[in-house]
Structures are given as C-alpha cells and as structure tokens.
Amino acid sequence: MPLELPPLLTGLPMIDLPMEGIEGHLLQSDNVQGVFFRAKAGVFFPEHRHEVQWGVILEGEFEITIDGMTTRYGKGDTYFIPEGVLHSGRYRTDALSFDVFGGRDKFRKK
C-alpha cells in the first residue's frame, strides 16, 4: 500500500480485520474507539449497522451509501453515520481515513 501513516500512528495496536487490503490502528477510550485505516482501492464493506460513526478522509477517495444515499468523499471530507443506520462503503482509491465509533467493542486488537 503506497500511502503511509507516520510511526506515531503505526505504533498503535493493530485491529483484527477479516478482510484483505485494509489495516487499522486503534485508539481506545472508555466509551469510543478511533481507528486510523489504510486501505487499497476496491476494499468493500457490505451493508451493516452499528453504533454512531464519524470519519474523515485523510488521503484518497471513499464512497459510502448511508440509508440508501451514496456519496463520494475525498481528502478533508467528513461523514457521519447515526447509530443503527444501514450503510456500506468502498474505497475508490488507495486511501487513509480516521474513523471514530461509539462504544468500546467494535474492534479487537490483533
């Protein structure tokens, strides 16, 4: 993956993801998880729902379908997914993003 995160972030614990072409580094608090993602173009998240999510694209492009509406996001764009709303997503290019998830149990450390 050509896009790189700085050592300050790659030194964070990696999360266990069941798919190829994406990795995440975890920031954990008592009630939220923040994840720095590095993904290859084409990585797809099938439709799902969970607690609230906010994200920002650091590099590249990400397309998200939230409650039936599809939007393409690029560098500097932010998105918000309310708790329980169906959504799916696809990285259109190699990309870096940062996402914050409500709750502390969405991801587990590797």
The major pleated sheet works out as: 5 strands, antiparallel
Mean pLDDT reading: 95
Q: Please count the helical segments.
A: 1
Mass-distribution shape:
globular
Order of helices and strands: HEEEEEEEEE
For the terminal residues, how far apart are their CA atoms? Answer: 19 Å
Instruction: Enumerate the spans where pLDDT stays under 50 for 5 or more consecutive residues.
Output: none
**Beta-strand residue fraction:** over 45%
Strand order of the largest sheet: 1-2-9-4-7
- Please estimate the helix content: under 10%
Q: Indicate the radius of gyration in whole angstroms.
A: 13 Å
How many DSSP E strands? 9
Structural class: mainly beta
Structural overview:
This protein has 110 residues and is mainly beta. Helix content is 4%, strand content 49%. The chain is built from one helix and nine strands, in the order αβββββββββ. The longest helix is centred in the first third of the chain and has 4 residues, at 7-10. It is globular, with a radius of gyration of 13 Å. The two termini are 19 Å apart. The model has no long low-confidence stretch (mean pLDDT 95).
In short:
By secondary structure, the protein is mainly beta. 4% of the residues lie in helices and 49% in strands.
Topology:
Elements: H1 7-10, E1 22-28, E2 32-39, E3 44-48, E4 53-59, E5 62-66, E6 69-73, E7 78-81, E8 87-91, E9 95-102
Structure keywords:
mainly beta; 5-stranded antiparallel sheet; 110 residues; 9 strands; 1 helix; 4-stranded antiparallel sheet
